[in-house]
Write a structure and sequence with these properties.
The chain is α+β, with helices and mostly antiparallel strands. The protein folds into 2 domains: 201 residues, Gcn5-related N-acetyltransferase (GNAT) (Aminopeptidase, 3-Layer(aba) Sandwich); 140 residues, Aminopeptidase, CATH 3.40.630. It has 11 helices and 15 strands. The radius of gyration is 22 Å and the shape is globular. The relative contact order is 0.14.
Length: 378
C-alpha cells in the first residue's frame, strides 16, 4: 500500500472518489468538496489549504481522507483557541495544523473512508503514521479529526488519540405518520406551544414554499444568497461561502438539496437550505431580513420535521448549538473529535483537558435531556 497526497480535488477522478465515498453523506461527495475549492471558499488564502490523502493498493484506490492545512481555527465548530493561546504563551506555534473535517460543516460523518473488506484499523494507523511523519518534517503542531462517526472514534481512541466530546441537538423520526402524529408524542404544554407558533405564521400572512434543489432557479439562488449573507453581515462578519459555491452544488448535486422559502405578500421574507442524505436531513443555512414571530422555528425546524416524516428519513441534523431546539423535540446527542499533539507535554495537557471537560459535557447532556418535551412513560 502507498499513500498519495493531493493539493486539490481536481487531482482525483470524481468517479473514483465517489465510488468509494458514496453519496449517502452529501458533504464528502467529490462535488461538494470540489465546489468549496473551485469557488475559492476553501483555499490557502482563506486558511484552508487542501492536502487530501489517498491510499492505493496496486493502483486501486482503497481509502481516502479529506485533509487540510489550517492557518486558523475558524469555521470548525470545535473550539481550540485556548490550546493555540497556550502554545503561544510558551513560545510555540500552534498553526499551521492538520485538520480532517468537512470545511464549515459541523455534521457527523465518515472522515476516513475505507473500501469494504479492508482492515479499517490498519488503514487508520497507516494514515496517522504518515501524518505524524509529515508533522515532524514540516514542523506542524498537530492533527485534528472533527465530527467522525462513533466507530471511527473508537479506532482513533485505540491509537491513543485524545477524544473530545460535545453536544448537538437532533430530531429522530420514531415512525410518525405525519406532524400531528409527532405532536401526540409531546406533553400537552409543548404541543400547544408548537401549534400556537405554527398558527402565528398563518396569522402573519406567511406561507412556506419547499423547492427541490433541481427545480431552484438562478434568481432564487440569488435571493437565497442575499438572505444567507445577511446572517453574517448582521454580526459584522463576511460570509464564509460565496454564490459561486451554491451555484456549483446546485448544478452538480441538486438532487440532494432542499430550499424552503417563507413568502409574505408574494415576496420572500426568509429562507432555509438543507441537504438530503440517505436517511438524514441536514439543516445548514438560514437567513431573513426582518424578524417575524416564530418564523425561524417554522422555516428551520418544523418544515424539516415534516419533510423527514414525509420522506421516511430517520434523523434531522439541524446543525450546531441551539438549546431552544430541546423544547421542540431535538434530543441532545454526543459529538466527537480526535486530537494528536506532537509536543508530548502539550499532548498530556490536552488529554487532561478533554477528560475534565467530558465530565461537564456529560452533566450538560443529562440536564438537557431532562427538558425534553416528550410524554413521560413508565
Amino acid at each position: 500500500m502507498n499513500i498519495k497526497q493531493i493539493q486539490s480535488m481536481s487531482q482525483i477522478d470524481p468517479a473514483a472518489w465517489n465510488q468509494l465515498a458514496g453519496t449517502d453523506y452529501p458533504f464528502i461527495r467529490h462535488e461538494f468538496l470540489m465546489a468549496l475549492e473551485q469557488s475559492g471558499s476553501v483555499c490557502n488564502q482563506t486558511g484552508w489549504k487542501p492536502a487530501h490523502l489517498l491510499v492505493y493498493d496496486n493502483e486501486i484506490l482503497i481509502a481516502l481522507m479529506p485533509l487540510y492545512l489550517k492557518g486558523h481555527s475558524w469555521g470548525e465548530y470545535i473550539f481550540d483557541h485556548q490550546w493555540a493561546q497556550a502554545f503561544q504563551q510558551h513560545g510555540l506555534n500552534y498553526y499551521p495544523k492538520w485538520l480532517t473535517a468537512i470545511p464549515l460543516t459541523p455534521c457527523q460523518g465518515s472522515r476516513i473512508v475505507v473500501r469494504d473488506q479492508i482492515d479499517s484499523l490498519k488503514i487508520t494507523e497507516l494514515l496517522l503514521t504518515f501524518i505524524q511523519k509529515l508533522s515532524e518534517e514540516q514542523n506542524i503542531s498537530s492533527w485534528h479529526c472533527l465530527f467522525p462517526t462513533l466507530p471511527q472514534v473508537k479506532l482513533l481512541e485505540s491509537l491513543k488519540l485524545s477524544i473530545r466530546e460535545g453536544v448537538q441537538f437532533q430530531w429522530f423520526n420514531k415512525g410518525y405518520h405525519d406532524f400531528d402524529d409527532y405532536l401526540l408524542a409531546l406533553s400537552s404544554s409543548k404541543r400547544k406551544m408548537i401549534k400556537r407558533e405554527r398558527k402565528r405564521i398563518l396569522e402573519q400572512g406567511i406561507e412556506l414554499l419547499p423547492i427541490a434543489g433541481t427545480e431552484i432557479t438562478p434568481k432564487q439562488w440569488q435571493i437565497f444568497y442575499n438572505f444567507y449573507s445577511m446572517t453574517y453581515l448582521k454580526k459584522g462578519s463576511e460570509p464564509y461561502l460565496n454564490l459561486a459555491f451554491f451555484e456549483q452544488i446546485a448544478a452538480n448535486m441538486g438532487e440532494q438539496l432542499l430550499l424552503v422559502f417563507a413568502i409574505k405578500d408574494d415576496n420572500p421574507v426568509a429562507v432555509a437550505l438543507s441537504f438530503v442524505g440517505a436517511d438524514t436531513l441536514y439543516g445548514r443555512y438560514w437567513g431573513c431580513y426582518d424578524e417575524y414571530h416564530s418564523l425561524h422555528f417554522e422555516t428551520c425546524y418544523y418544515q424539516g420535521i415534516e419533510y423527514c416524516i414525509q420522506k421516511s428519513l430517520k434523523r434531522f441534523d439541524s446543525g450546531a448549538q441551539g438549546e431552544h431546539k430541546i423544547a421542540r423535540g431535538f434530543e441532545p446527542i454526543t459529538t466527537y473529535s480526535a486530537h494528536w499533539i506532537q509536543d508530548s507535554q502539550f499532548s498530556k495537557a490536552v488529554e487532561h483537558f478533554v477528560i475534565e471537560e467530558r465530565k461537564a459535557i456529560e452533566h450538560y447532556r443529562e440536564k438537557a435531556s431532562s427538558y425534553l418535551p416528550f410524554k413521560q412513560t413508565d
